[in-house]
Amino acid sequence: MRNLSLLLTLDQQEDDYSTYLLDYQIGRSLGRDRWGSPRLLARQSSACGWQADGIPLLLGRGPARPGLELLPARQGARLSIDGRWLWKPHPQAPWPAPHRIVQLDRHRRRREVIWKREGWEVLDLQVDPNGQGLYFAVRLPEERGQLWHWCPRRRSNVLLIDSADFPPIEFAVHPKEAGLAFVDQSDDQVYYRPFGVGGIRRLSQPDREQESQDAPGVYRCSPAFTPDGSRLFYCTAFLGMEGAHLCNSGNLYVTSMLGSKLREVGLEEEGCPVNVCLPSWPVYLGMAIAS
User: Fold this and answer.
1) Cα→Cα distances 8→98, 188, 272, 283, Å
2) Is the peptide bond before 96 cis (omega within 30 degrees of 0)?
3) Confidence (pLDDT) at 119
4) How does pLDDT run across 181-221, given as a tens digit for each residue?
5) pLDDT tens digits for 88-108?
6) Which one, 114, 127, 152, 196, has the greatest CB density within 10 A?
7) Contact indicator for 84, 107 with CB cutoff of 8 Å
8) Domains of the chain: which residue ranges?
9) Whole-angstrom Cα distance, residue 120 to residue 91?
10) What is the DSSP letter of 266?
11) Is the pLDDT of residue 67 over 60?
């Protein structure tokens, strides 16, 4: 694979969140990767994912635009690539933390709770690489974290991780579903954890992030794999001063899963990256055939 499209949410301070598209070319090595300039898709919106036929999926409210799908839902909602299954954490409020996951079958207009546990917290939801199921991370505070996979067609939940040393904030499952990258709550670093044998290794590289040298309190978010699993993107963010105003700053980074190099993906000062969404392999293949 060579040409790729990244869907980005950028925090532009006065303009709130806006969604951009970034063209990215994968080279023979990370040092040969190239990318273009971010292109504005929609203001007052955030990136959510990709639909079949390469349609960008955005969270927000407003009139629909050709070539985009706008989902009027809050942060954390996920939609299967065919648009049938919509998943949301509930309650969708800062407090109390969400402790159940609701699924809406948009074809039959049927709503049901697919996971619920009092005292637990739903941390993150991610559509699986096939685009038809859901991975979700939950935790029992001060005790342990878990990773589950839900298949709506089989109507089954499968527990994949149940461990005291699994405290994710956000995560991304590898396209081959052999493991996952996650942001650790304890140190805000990005790690890779295999589902089978093998140890956890750190993917983020604070010693190579310029902001980590210059500013305290840098945190990382939104890990995302390329469709072939060869690259991992993640965002950094920290609070800084611009004149008399406190604002978010940060960068987008990419690392190779086969090496230890790290590159900053320049965004030409369009804003602070909040999250990044890449197409799954089925969506990418559809985009490649269409082009």
Assistant:
1) 25, 20, 10, 17
2) yes
3) 92
4) 999 998 999 999 999 877 899 999 999 988 877 777 889 99
5) 999 866 667 899 999 999 999
6) 127
7) yes
8) 3-290
9) 12
10) -
11) yes
Q: Could you tell me the two tokens for 38?
A: 């971010």
Residue pair 60/47 in contact (Cβ under 8 Å)? The answer is: no
Residue with tokens 């190239």: 34
Q: Mean pLDDT over all residues of the chain?
A: 90
How are beta strands 144-151 and 134-140 bridged, if at all?
antiparallel
Helix ranges (H only) for the chain are: 210-214, 281-290
Positive or negative torsion for Cα 285, 253, 170, 110:
negative
DSSP state of 135: E
CA distance 66 to 188: 38
CATH architecture of the region 3-290: 6 Propeller (2.120)
Q: Which amino acid is at 205?
A: Q
Query: Judging by DSSP bridges, how do beta strands 17-25 and 39-43 pair with one another?
Result: antiparallel
